[in-house]
Amino acid sequence: MSDNTQDILKEAAAAAAVGGSLFSTFDIIMLIFLFGAALWWLYTSRKENKKDDLLLSKYSIQPAGSIQITENSFIKKLQSSGRSLVVFYGSQTGTGEEFAGRLAKEGIRYKMKGMVADPEECDMEELTKLRDIENSLAVFCLATYGEGDPTDNAMDFYEWLKSGDPDLTGLNYAVFGLGNKTYEHFNSVAIYVDKRLEELGATRVFELGLGDDDANIEDDFITWKEKFWPAVCEKYNIESTGEEELTRQFRLVTHAPDEITPNEVFTGEIARLHSFQNQRVPFDAKNPFLAQIIVNKELHKGGDRSCLHIELDISNSKMRYEAGDHVAVYPINDRGLVERLGVLTGADLDEVFSLINTDQESTKKNPFPCPTSYRTALSHYVEITALPRTHILRELAEYCVEDEDKNKLLLMSTNSQEGKALYQSFVVDSCRNIVHILEDLKSCKPPLDHLCELLPRLQPRYYSISSSPKLYPETVHVTAVVVKYETPTGRLNKGVTTTWLAENKPEPGKPFPRVPIYIRKSQFRLPLQTQTPVLMVGPGTGLAPFRGFLQERSHARINGKEVGDTILYFGCRHRDQDYIYQEELEEFERNGDVTLHVAFSRDQPKKVYVTHLLENNLEQIWDVIGKRNGHFYICGDAKNMAVDVRNIVLKAVQEKGGRSETEAVQFLKKLESMKKYSADVWS
């Protein structure tokens, strides 16, 4: 009680003691009671306001427009739901997240209720507290991309492990890596995390798994987890409950037309409702910029293939890029495939629905933005052209009327040699997507909502930017070959993004087509000093980032800067058909901006590739990287070209630099660590 309040009460009591007072003793008591009640109300309301402020600070706007409390303590979620298994994922394309979900779901069979967690949304320092939960286990499904980099959502966790020194004694863990053997740094993130966790005192429950996307990563994962679970059972002295129980993770809610207005329905937005109508900075993976396609033209002069030059308008977006960065493009699935899925499942594609997670503790309330229509989900949100993985086939088997179809799907979903061989031939070698499987197994009639739950999320496609902001600050240029091929079953498969882009060209008198994009920063950079010599190898569309590099170096020369030697090795099939940007490159050469080495593989009886030209210039390679402290760049095919080029560089270091094989390897690794040997490759 305050001093002022006490004074008032004293004065009231004194007044009561004086004869002839206006207030009786009862009146004084009532006044004191009412005054105290008023003070108590003021105090509690002020306290509640503080609580509300604190609570509101924990709320965030969710994609579907509902407000929920966000909680980054995975420990609290595990404790409140009686779980002991947490599966973290580092995923760039969605596969790591998918594998994590499958592991968490399977945990029920082994009396380990599981939870999937995104390390970006968790306080990962809580790993030090996981030991306090009985029989706890942390599994990490981590992808490696780029030059041995962690995925965007695992970056902070990776840096915390590298720079921190937490005591992880008592933490039980296992790691499965997702990588590609055609890349130099195969699964380096998973390898490091597995080793680092052990160094910090954690206990490895099962050996590191290394998935290879260049071969069959699905097979690698299944083989690993079939040995992983027995190891877990032995560690925790538990037993499997038997056969896997197929349970839906999401429940279907169908919205009648009178229950929901069109204004409440997602129509392709990535996260925020109406984000394409009301664009707000900053733009990123969850909030892409709707860019106008202001130029879309063919680069090939002949032949049966197509290569597009596309210019995207980023003015007013406040997005900035540098030569060497990537642009992420969100595609739309082929309209014909979408319609075909509607027919095969007997669904009304315009029906509006939501899929709601049955796990109340999960941070992922919906598999994609909901509510939406089936047409929108199939067009914008789910991957319908990818080859379905075995767990999808297992679920589809339950919807087969004919035993032959069911048994075929069940066999392919097993880890038996016969099942693996059938999956390889029927799905992988034949390039069958979900549409093709439903067409060929005619008695399989899954409900479309379950398909939408099972199929992976449609991911953006990344392209090396083929321009420099020094010349084009308000546009991003893309150079892309249109993917189209005939499958062994006689079907025509098309690339999702390039097919959509090819069909969306600016037309006179019509609004420019628009596409959702964002800029992804890269480590693929020109040296800071313009006088540093550079050697670039980029056959085909591998030329893309080097076009930006050449524009940048030319701009520096025009502005009076000293520019070092710029050497480019480019290759294509025919000079008169697919020599992309020929006029630009020859103009750069005339101006002294580049020394060109061009290989036309099919213009003579014996094929000649850029690797042949490089091998004839070992002295030049060593001069640039060994004598003059220059930079070496590769862009293009990772599986063959990049490996061959690397071997040629090692040969140059040995033969012209006088190094042993071991010394040459160490020399190249040093260049890589200093960003003087850089690769932007894909498989």
From TrEMBL:
The keyword Cell cycle does not apply. Binds 1 FMN per monomer. Binds 1 FAD per monomer. One of its GO terms (biological process) is response to hormone. It catalyses: 2 oxidized [cytochrome P450] + NADPH = 2 reduced [cytochrome P450] + NADP(+) + H(+). GO terms for cellular component: cytosol; endoplasmic reticulum membrane. This enzyme is required for electron transfer from NADP to cytochrome P450 in microsomes. It can also provide electron transfer to heme oxygenase and cytochrome B5. Pfam families: FAD_binding_1, Flavodoxin_1, NAD_binding_1. Residues 286-527 form the FAD-binding FR-type domain. GO terms for molecular function: flavin adenine dinucleotide binding; FMN binding; NADP binding; NADPH-hemoprotein reductase activity. Keywords: Endoplasmic reticulum, FAD, Flavoprotein, FMN, Membrane, NADP, Oxidoreductase, Transmembrane, Transmembrane helix. It comes from the Eukaryota. Gene3D superfamilies: 3.40.50.360, NADPH-cytochrome p450 Reductase, Chain A, domain 3, Nucleotide-binding domain of ferredoxin-NADP reductase (FNR) module, Translation factors. NADP(+) binds at residues 305, 541, 601-602, 607-611, 644. The lineage of its organism: Eukaryota, Metazoa, Ecdysozoa, Arthropoda, Hexapoda. This is NADPH--cytochrome P450 reductase. SUPFAM superfamilies: Ferredoxin reductase-like, C-terminal NADP-linked domain, Flavoproteins, Riboflavin synthase domain-like. It is found in: Endoplasmic reticulum membrane. It comes from Danaus chrysippus (African queen). InterPro entries: CysJ-like_FAD-binding, FAD-bd_FR_type, Flavdoxin-like, Flavodoxin/NO_synth, Flavoprot_Pyr_Nucl_cyt_Rdtase, Flavoprotein-like_sf, FNR_nucleotide-bd, NADPH_Cyt_P450_Rdtase_alpha.
